[in-house]
Amino acid sequence: MKIIVLGAGLVGSAIAKDLAGAFEVTSADINEAALKPLSAHSIKTKQADLSNTMVLKDLVKEYDLVVGAVPGFMGYNTVKAVIEAGKNIVDISFFPEDPLELDQLAKEKKVCAVVDCGVAPGMGNIILGYHNQAMEVTDYECLVGGLPLVREWPWEYKAVFSPIDVIEEYTRPARYVQNSREVVREALSDPELVHFEKAGTLESWNSDGLRSLIKTMPHIPNMIEKTLRYPGTIEYLRVLRETGFFSDKPIEVNGQQIKPIELTSKLLFPMWKLKPGEQEFTVMRIKISGNENGAEVQYEYNLHDVFHQETGISSMARTTGYTCNAVVHLISADQFNKPGVHPPEYLGEDPDNFHFIVDYLKERGVVYHVSKGGV
């Protein structure tokens, strides 16, 4: 099978390297410097402007399957173009638009499109989909974050995926479900301090990570996803946001119209960039409660994954990319190949698919520790 990976950033490059062991892989990106290191891993490369729909459709026509790893602001149009080209796609771009709007188009084109297929959204959805088939779920909580091991002033943060998508998390309204009603709050709201055995005490806040679950799991009365950062982060992010530094509305400065977000990005992104070999980690805790076989139970999944020294691949790239790649293998083996747009929870509904994904991750050192207790 011939696979093309769109995007050669931190996660896209990790996806390509992992898939190259089983498939003929090509990586495409507009940035030639990002593509150059991949040649040493038996990966073909193509420099292309992936934001150009016509270029994109022509690019993917010779491949059997497409992996989307572009920034979120490009994600929706990328997935749409790939579907229109009649190619199956697994996408991790976490775009703001509703991917289910493309479901009918995918069915008409007989395309299988799996979206939001990363760590969260992604693996969290897969885990919930699995348990939703086996029990009456009443509560779902996902806490997740990617952080540098060394807390370096002033930000104590490094962007472990597209920096512009990170800022989107600070501005996009957060949706969650409480008592069977959808609640919309501003991002960074309802901060809490949460202790983790290996990561210590972190700060959680509302972010818009439930995504498709609000539509596909309407019977679950309580669902929430919160982002994790080092304590103190929320305060300065709120200051920046409320002052207007994240705004995309132009303002006049010395007779010039500029968007504040463009200035903010220029200043922040170099400071947020991971240095070569810089260690970071991903932490996630999922709690699923409900009734199983007449008893009240709670499942807890814990992930603490760290930068992989031997390969130099970041933890966020591993936890996101390898989840995506497990689904690529399922599609390539025709174990999941239904036409339409599929959020990750649909993958988890089949126990065989669920265990394949869990085992795929475990083989690569990404281990979810699960415990079960009463409520």
Tags for this model:
375 residues, alpha/beta, Rossmann fold, Dihydrodipicolinate Reductase, domain 2, 7-stranded parallel beta sheet, 33% helix
Overall description:
By secondary structure, this protein is an alpha/beta fold. The chain has two domains: 2-118 and 315-371, Rossmann fold; 123-306, Dihydrodipicolinate Reductase, domain 2, CATH 3.30.360.10. It contains 13 helices and 18 strands. It has helices at 10-19, 32-35, 53-60, 72-84, 103-108, 123-132, 163-171, 213-216, 233-243, 260-272, 315-332, 345-348, 351-363; strands spanning 2-6, 24-29, 44-47, 65-68, 88-91, 112-114, 136-148, 174-178, 181-185, 192-196, 200-206, 222-229, 251-253, 256-258, 280-292, 295-306, 340-342, 369-374. The strands form four sheets. A seven-stranded parallel β-sheet has the order 3-2-1-4-5-6-17, sandwiched between helices. β5, α5 and β6 form a beta-alpha-beta unit. The relative contact order is 0.16.
